[in-house]
Sequence to fold (365 residues):
Amino acid sequence: MRKRWQNLERFMAHTPDVDWARLDDREQDPVRHSPFPEEEERIFVEKLVNRSGYSGYEKERLEEGFVMSDGTHLAFIDGRMSIDGRSHEARIPTEQYLLLLTNPEQRKGWDLLKIFLAVSGLYQTIDLHGRPQRYIHRFHRLFGQIQRELLAPFDAFVQASFLLEQNERRKRKAVFSQKENWTFDLMNRLSGRRPRQRMKFARRFIRTGDNRSIPASNLPWVRRWCDLTSQVELSNVSYPFMVNSKGVLCFRTLTKNGSVRRAPIPFLPGLLAGLISWGCSPHASKQGEWLVAAQMNWTAPYENADTADEPFRRSMQFLRGVLEQFPNDTWLHRDRLLVRGMLGHFYEVRIDRGAHNAPFKIHGV
Fold:
C-alpha cells in the first residue's frame, strides 16, 4: 500500500496539480510561531500518533494557536479550525492537521492553510452561511431528510474554489477579479439543493456554456472546467472519492466485485495537493480520468517486474514495426490510429483488450 502512495505522489510531483499549493520560497517554513515549546511539542506529537487524547493545558495551547508565515492566526477550538478568529464550520481530521503542522520537514515550502481549506471541501457539503454542520444534521433529522452527502466533482470544484477564494479575499489578495465573485454565486445557487438536483444543475451549467464565463484563475482545475464542452458521468465510480472516517482521511476505491473499500491517505502535502486538484477536475479531463483509474485499479495486484510479459512485449514490438514501416501512412486521432497498408487497405488501431494480452485491437476499415 505504501508503495502505491509513493508512486502516486511521484507521478503528481512537479505538475500544476501540486504547484498551486506551494509557497513562493520552497525552503520557507509556513509556521512562524508554534504555541508549544520544543519539548512539549514532542510529547504532544507522541499523543497524536498514539491517538491517546490530550490534556486541558494542550487544548489551551491549541486555542492560543499557530502564527503562519503570512501572519494568519490558526487555532483549533473544540475540534474546529479557526482562522483569524473566524471559525471554519466544517468537519476536519484535526489530529492529521496537527501532525502536519508540527512536522517541520514535511510542512516546509507548502501553504498548509490552502491545503486544509481545500481538503474540507471535498467530502462534505459546506454551508454558505457558515452554520455548524451538527445543527444542519439535527434539522434534517427533525424533518426526516437524512441523505448521504454525494459530492460529485462539480460540487468539489465549486466548494474548494469558494473556500480558497474566500481565503484570498481575507488576505486582500484575490486570485479572481474583485468585481466578480463567481464562486459565491455558484455556492448560492447550489445551496439547499438535494444531490440529484445538484447533478442536474451541473449538467445544465455545462450544456448552456456558463462555464466559459468563469474568470481566469491560477487554480489548475478551474481552467479544466472552463474548457469543458460536455459532462461525463461514470455511474460505477463511487463519490466523494475521499471521506473522513473517524478523523482519518480515506481514499474510496472500487474492487472487481463492485464493493467499495477505504484506503487511509498518507497526510503528505504534495499528495494532498494533487488529490485535491484531481478530485476537483471534471471526469472528462485527463486528471479526472487518472483519479477514476486510481480508484478502480487500487486493489489490483501490484507488479514490480523489470520487464513486461512476453506476449505483451511481442504485441508492442509488432505495433512499433507497423509505425516504422508506414511513417507517412499513419494518422492519429485522439485514442485511435489509422494505418494505410501496402495494398492501399486501411486499418484502424484502437485501445482495447486484444489477442495475446495486447492493449489494442486492429480492425479493417
